[in-house]
């Protein structure tokens, strides 16, 4: 079990980030990571020792997150992204960055789960395509095509979002 | 030398810096002669950087205590509560009684996830009955807190703590003992300045491990339910889960720090 602590503990911050990005709620995301770690402890002896533990533990977290999101979406009133405090998403470095991050996170939230997850795993968690394929339990080709669609869609969502700059002219950056 | 045609996969791999040097050079050459593709690839790179930056602060946060891996492993090693042989003896005894008296093991309230679900249902049902009551929502009012603690502790057979939610804007109104399928439960009611009421519900889980917090919803009443050290807890109210969850975390924190 000390080997588990050595291999898994350094991954916990990244697990929190993935959970937070998907659930957009600090406490719910940390509960999910806790659940994930409990399961990982229970299944540690079943894992193949020759494989990187990163894809293995992200797969556990990913599956828990998908179950949780399905349950949330079947509820009468999901929490809108606007209701979520900025602190639940990320810590904006400045007002301008804060606005851009909010636009981005709300654009991300409009993507279907299968696109959102692949973007986060590849772009933010920097998993290889092979690792992402293991986490999502799909062939690498599917990872690639989802990633392509996800990038297109995110770009479109961001480009189509009217920027609130006109309402805050003092925030406009002069180039 | 003929080069393979540039595919969308190559452009993605270029954005993700997953190409070998040779292929990368071919993509760069292609982008130099295709400015509109280059522009899109640049935008995708910028969006990737923005995504990373937006979520980067999360990994810098100190880890909360409940995510301490060493502690979780330690907690697993420690045998929980009742020794196994005593549980086995109780089960044998109950089976014997069951054979004679037609009882069922349901009464054990074993803390499986099914046990948590039952607890959540009981809490929501009690909320539905007592929270709308204007005349007598509680049996013992908050002024007689000591009496309330003594009564509920005696009926539950173990000390019961009443969490303080004043810092979140909820005042204790009072409480009562209520009946469930699994024996007596303690109900504490809180309200805020707008008259919104919350119910904190607790009863023994008879046995079983600690259970992580789980949300539930029943007829528009949201709740968070968990089990710690043999007691099951549920915080329920007709408020959004996003409001309720931090309160449930606070309740759990207070109870754990008193234990």
Automatic annotation (TrEMBL), chain A:
Assigned keywords, A-Z: Sigma factor, Transcription, Transcription regulation
The record ties this protein, via CDD domains, to:
Sigma70_r4 (cd06171)
Check the record and name the Gene3D superfamilies matching this protein: 1.10.1740.10, Winged helix-like DNA-binding domain superfamily/Winged helix DNA-binding domain (1.10.10.10)
UniProt domain PhyR sigma2: residue ranges: 8-62
Residue ranges constituting the RNA polymerase sigma factor 70 region 4 type domain according to the UniProt record: 102-154
GO terms, molecular function: DNA binding; sigma factor activity
Please tell me whether the keyword Transcription is annotated for this protein: yes
Region ranges (Disordered): 154-175
Report the InterPro entries cross-referenced here.
PhyR_sigma2, RNA_pol_sigma-70-like, RNA_pol_sigma-70_dom, RNA_pol_sigma70_r4_t2, RNA_pol_sigma_r2, RNA_pol_sigma_r3/r4-like, WH-like_DNA-bd_sf
Write out the GO biological process terms.
Answer: DNA-templated transcription initiation
Transcription regulation recorded as keyword = yes
Residue ranges annotated as compositionally biased, kind Basic and acidic residues, are 154-168
Which Pfam families does its entry note? PhyR_sigma2, Sigma70_r4_2
Q: Which residues form a coiled coil?
A: none
Q: Which family does it belong to?
A: Belongs to the sigma-70 factor family. ECF subfamily.
Q: Cross-referenced NCBIfam families, in alphabetical order?
A: sigma70-ECF
Identification of the protein by name: Sigma-70 family RNA polymerase sigma factor
TrEMBL record, chain B:
Q: Which organism is this protein's natural source?
A: Xanthobacter dioxanivorans
Membrane-spanning regions, if any?
85-105
Superkingdom of the organism of origin: Bacteria
Q: Which UniProt keywords apply?
A: Membrane, Transmembrane, Transmembrane helix
Q: What is this protein called?
A: Anti-sigma factor
């Amino acid at each position: 079990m000390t080997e588990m602590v050595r291999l898994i503990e350094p991954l916990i911050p990244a697990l929190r980030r993935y959970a937070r990005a998907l659930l957009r709620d600090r406490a719910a995301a940390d509960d999910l990571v806790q659940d994930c770690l409990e399961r990982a402890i229970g299944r540690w002896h079943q894992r193949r020792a020759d494989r990187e533990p990163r894809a293995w533990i992200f797969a556990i977290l990913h599956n828990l997150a998908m179950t949780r999101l399905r349950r949330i979406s079947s509820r009468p009133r999901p929490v809108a992204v606007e209701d979520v405090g900025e602190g639940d998403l990320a810590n904006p470095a400045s007002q301008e960055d804060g606005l851009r991050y909010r636009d981005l996170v709300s654009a991300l939230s409009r993507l279907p789960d299968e696109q959102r997850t692949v973007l986060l795993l590849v772009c933010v968690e920097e998993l290889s395509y092979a690792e992402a394929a293991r986490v999502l339990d799909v062939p690498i080709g599917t990872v690639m095509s989802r990633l392509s669609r996800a990038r297109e869609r995110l770009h479109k969502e961001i480009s189509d979002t009217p920027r609130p700059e006109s309402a805050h002219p003092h925030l406009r950056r002069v180039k | 030398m003929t080069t393979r045609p540039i595919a969308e996969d190559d452009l993605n791999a270029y954005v993700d810096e997953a190409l070998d040097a040779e292929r990368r050079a071919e993509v760069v050459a292609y982008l130099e002669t295709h400015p509109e593709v280059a522009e899109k690839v640049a935008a995708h790179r910028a969006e990737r950087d923005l995504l990373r930056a937006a979520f980067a602060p999360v990994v810098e946060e100190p880890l909360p205590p409940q995510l301490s891996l060493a502690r979780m492993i330690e907690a697993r090693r420690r045998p929980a509560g009742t020794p196994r042989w005593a549980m086995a003896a109780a089960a044998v005894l109950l089976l014997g009684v069951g054979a004679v008296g037609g009882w069922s093991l349901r009464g054990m309230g074993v803390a499986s996830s099914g046990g948590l679900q039952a607890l959540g249902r009981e809490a929501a049902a009690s909320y539905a009955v007592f929270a709308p009551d204007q005349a007598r929502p509680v049996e013992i009012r908050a002024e007689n807190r000591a009496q309330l603690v003594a009564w509920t502790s005696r009926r539950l057979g173990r000390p019961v703590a009443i969490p303080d939610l004043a810092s979140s804007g909820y005042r204790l109104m009072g409480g009562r003992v209520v009946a469930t399928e699994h024996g007596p439960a303690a109900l504490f009611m809180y309200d805020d300045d707008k008259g919104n009421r919350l119910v904190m519900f607790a009863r023994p889980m008879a046995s079983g491990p600690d259970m992580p917090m789980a949300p539930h919803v029943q007829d528009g009443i949201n709740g968070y339910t968990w089990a710690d050290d043999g007691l099951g807890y549920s915080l329920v109210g007709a408020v959004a889960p996003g409001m309720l969850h931090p309160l449930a975390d606070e309740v759990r924190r207070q109870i754990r720090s008193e234990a």
